[in-house]
């Protein structure tokens, strides 16, 4: 299965049912444990379904309905001989269905596309697949000015170089209609490092601490942290320990 098929299987999965016995569901669940993006989407899906179940369970039956259903044996006239207890039971089901459809309308499933996990995965793919520099420069002031003028990205204490790397330039990306800055550091005998930044308000579920958090995404190491209202993502082939050394200067 490809990633799209895995996502579709996980979105159809219902816990505590026979779904968990299906081979494709078991395989998708196992793969999601190894993929932070899939795991995040699955948890949001399960949380939404749990909330819907809680809301449906909170629906109260009319007072005396149970006793009436048990004792009622009179056939309602004019309804083709349908027992009244079946009519009442049908009304309860109809109310529950209306409540469920109302929840779907007023409380739609979470926006998986706009999550931090998806942002991180997309930025890693951008670094791996290549991109066009909007500005090639070794000058940190020049890069800062360009990002400020072209994308409104401010309050970024951009280092002119990182250990073993020098500033190569920058690019401006879009994420959910919000500008994201990309700065590249590299050297001829070292793999590149990519530093992304975006306003923290664009990623409400991103980590909010200044202490960098590490994760391996698509065979690349990443660090994420938030500082002064901005979320930073450092991506590279270096070890997590080496990235932490760079992160202290890149925030």
Report on the architecture of this protein:
With 251 residues, this protein is α+β, with helices and mostly antiparallel strands. The chain folds into two domains: 3-111; 113-250, Phosphorylase Kinase, domain 1 (2-Layer Sandwich). It is 43% helix and 22% strand. It has eight helices and eight strands. The chain has helices at residues 3-12, 23-32, 36-57, 65-71, 84-106, 116-129, 140-151, 240-250, and strands at 135-136, 161-162, 165-175, 178-187, 190-199, 213-217, 220-227, 230-236. Helix 1 (3-12) packs across helix 2 (23-32), helix 1 (3-12) runs parallel beside helix 3 (36-57) and helix 3 runs antiparallel to helix 6. The radius of gyration is 26 Å and the shape is elongated. It starts with a helix and ends with a helix. Residues 103-111 have low confidence and may be disordered.
